[in-house]
Amino acid sequence: VGTPAIESVLSGELFKTGVHLPLDTGIPEPMKEKIWLDKYVEFKHLLPTHRPKAQFNINLEPLAGLPTLTVANNVEDSKNSFSLAQWSNAFAIYQYIYVQKHVLRSTQLISYGYLIRSMADRGAQWGKYDMYFRQLRQINPNLPWDVPHPQLYVDAFSSLALASSSPKPSFPRTNKIPRGYCFQYHLPGGQCSTTGCPYKHICPTCSGPHKEPNCPKKAQLRNNN
C-alpha cells in the first residue's frame, strides 16, 4: 500500500491545487500601477534578486562593551550588467502584469519580446533601444509595441555598422543625418509623429528651422564646389 503522499501525487491532486506562484508575487502595488499606466520602470527591479533594498541598513553591535546601534546607507551595486536572459525573465513578469489591464495588447508584447531578442542576436544595442522606447511610451502611450521605432532602431545598429566598416577618410556629412537629429523629420517628405520627440528638429548644417535636405546653405556649398 502506497503512502498518502505518493497516492496524492499519482492521482494528480497535488497539481490541481496549483503549486506555482503567480509571476507578480512580491511586486509592490505602486509598481504595478506604474506598469498599468505605461510609466517607465526599471526591469531589474522586477526580479527578486534585483528588487530595491531598504534605504538604510540597521545593526545592533557591541562596541567597547556596550550595545551600539549603527545605521548605514544601502548602496545599490550598479556594476552588475543586465543580461538578455535576465531581461527576458523580467519582461515575462512585466507582460504578466501589463496584460491584466491591457489584454488586447498581448500579441504586441509577444512581438516586442521577439524584436528585442532578434536585435540581441544581431549584435545591436538592444538594451538602449528597450530603455529609450519604454521611456517614449511613457510620453506617448499610443506607440504600438510591435512596430519598431525608426530612429531608435537605426541608432541601435549604428555602433555595429561603425565597428564592421573599414576606416575611411573623413568628409563633411552633407548627405546623412547626424546622430541626435530626428531621422523621421529630416527624411524628404517625412514627418515625425512622436509626441515630445527627444531628437532635434532643426537643420544640422545651419541650425535653421527646416529639414536638412532643404538647407539653403547646403545648396550654396554645392554651387561653390
What's the gist of this structure?
The protein is mainly α and 225 residues long.
Q: Can you characterise this structure?
A:
There is one protein chain. The protein has 225 residues and is mainly α. It has 9 helices and 2 strands. The protein has helices at 4-11, 13-16, 29-36, 84-98, 106-121, 126-139, 150-164, 183-186, 216-224, and strands spanning 56-63, 66-73. Strands 1-2 form a two-stranded antiparallel sheet. Strand 1 (56-63) and strand 2 form a beta hairpin. Helix 5 packs antiparallel against helix 6. It is elongated, with a radius of gyration of 26 Å.
Averaged pLDDT, please? 78
Biggest beta-sheet profile: 2 strands, antiparallel
| Secondary structure tally, helices | 9
* Rg calc: 26 Å
Spans where pLDDT lies below 50 across 5 or more residues: 6-11, 168-175
The number of E-state strands comes to: 2
Principal-axis shape = elongated
Sheet with the most strands: spatial strand order: 1-2
Query: What is the H/E order?
Result: HHHEEHHHHHH
The amount of helix comes to 40-55%
State which percent range the strand residues make up: 5-15%
Terminal CA distance reads: 98 Å
What is the structural class? mainly alpha
List the helices and strands and how they pair.
Blueprint: H1 4-11, H2 13-16, H3 29-36, E1 56-63, E2 66-73, H4 84-98, H5 106-121, H6 126-139, H7 150-164, H8 183-186, H9 216-224
Antiparallel strand pairs: 1-2
Helix pairs in contact: 4-5, 5-6, 6-7
